[in-house]
Every structure is written in structure tokens, then in C-alpha cells.
Amino acid sequence: MAGHNLTTVEYFILLGFSDLPKLQGILFAIFLSIYISILIGNGLLIFLTKIDSGLQTPMYFFLGNFSFLEICYTSVTLPRMLADLWTQKRTISFFACAVQTCFFFILGVAECLLLAAMAYDRYVAICKPLYYPLIMNHKLCVQLVVVSWMLGVPVLIEQTYQIFSLNFCGPNKINHIFCDAPPLFKLACGDTYKIEVSVHVVAQLFILTPFLLILASYIKIITTILKLPSTAGRSKAFSTCFSHLMVVGLFYGSGSIVYFQPKSSHSEGSVKIFALFYTTVTPMFNPLIYSLRNKDVIAALRKLLHK
Fold first, then answer.
1. pLDDT tens digits, residue range 55-65?
2. Would you say 81 and 177 are in contact if contact means Cβ atoms under 8 Å apart?
């Protein structure tokens, strides 16, 4: 990128919450608390799924990997945000911004794909229970996780290269809490239409496709559950899916507001809030959602506390 000398901008300024100068200390304390709770909560889930014999099933294998992904995903943005709030410098080099954008893309897509893999696991468990141990063997589970992490990497690296090959010829203030495509396009000089369309197409492919797979899985799941003869059976089947559905709703709900709303309806303040929601709030609530309504996780936690 630098070799082509396409930009005169050497660094960007992440404005973040600079419009709230009196709240910088409070915001730092809030986000530090959130980050620590994300590390502890998701770290505890990973630990439990590794050591407890009752959690050695495909569902908890995916949950452990999902918790690790949540830690990585949050660590791309939150530490930088905390540093900016503490130092008030807010500058990020051109290269660091590109790296942050690239990892944000890769981990965001991995989260979408892993949520789809988790939905498939629930589909097999409820719709094909007799074949569940055979279909969801350890080899397939590992393959689904590896595919979730790696599938989008080449395309997203290329997307990042295209974005940062644009000519940034002057304005360098990003009115956002981290480096992301939409605010960067606003700073670029010249025509960005083709690259914006390319980014949108990739987003449709890697975000909407997993969502449609999740939707199809749950349509089939709900149809199967409604055919169960007993109320207790239906309730138990629904309870195994509830936590996953909540996480999907939180992540996709806030993300779609940011990326799929018409530009005219965007306000910069609301974009920051919803970006915070899917990058910090969802990872923070993930351990609570999966533990408070999950008897297996609660039992494993009690065993750990007794020890």
C-alpha cells in the first residue's frame, strides 16, 4: 500500500467519544469493567467446557470456541478504545488502522459462521436425534470451527487492501470508536462507489448467508418441536435453543442496524452506540445468557466452586 504512494495521510484520529469531554474518566471505568467482565466470563466458560466431563459434547465444544472468539473480537477494539480514553491522544497509524480493520472483518465473519455452525448443531440434535452422535462427531465439529475461522480470510484481506489503497488526501478524523469501512469511505478522495459495492457484496455473502442458514435451521427446528406430543418435551427442546437465539438476535440485530440501514437514516451517535452493542455488550452477555438458563453450565460451575 505504501509502495504505491496513494495516500498523504500517515495517521488517523479516532474521535470516539471526544464530544463528551467531562465523561472520559467515567467512560474509561465503564469500558474497563466491561472488558474485564468479558475476559473473566468467557474465559470461565472456556475453562468449564474443557475440564467438566458433563460438558464434553458438540454444543459445548462450539460454545467454548465461540467464547474464545468473543474475547478475540472484543480485544480488536476495546483495548485501543481504553488507551484513547486514558491518554486522550486518539491517533492511530495508517498501518495500525488497516490491521484493526482487517482483524475486525475476519473475526466478525468468523462469528457469523460459527453461529451458523451452532444452529446446525441444534438442528441435528432436535430434528435427527438418533443420528446426532454419528453426524456431529468430533472430526466434523473441528472442521466446522476451522472453516468458520478461515473461510473469509483471503477475501477479507483483499477487501482491506482495497479500502486502504484508496487515496486519503487530507481529512483524517474518523468519527467512530474504531477503524471500520463506512467512516473510512467518508474520508477517501475520489470515487469510492466500486469498492463500496464490493464491500457490500462481501457483507451480504458472509453475513446474510449464515443468517439465512440459521433461519432455515430454526424454521425446521420449530416445526419439529411443535410436533412433539408432550408439553414438557417441547419446553425442554426450546430451552436448548433459547440461549443461542438470544445471542443471534443481539449480534445480528445491532449489526444490521449499522451496516444495512440506508445512509440517510444514519446518525453518527446511533452508529457508535450500536457498534458498541455488537462489539462489547453481546460478548459481555454471552456468558450470562449461556449460564443462567443452562443447567449443565450451572452444575459445572457449582462443582468447580465446591472444589
1. 899 999 999 99
2. yes
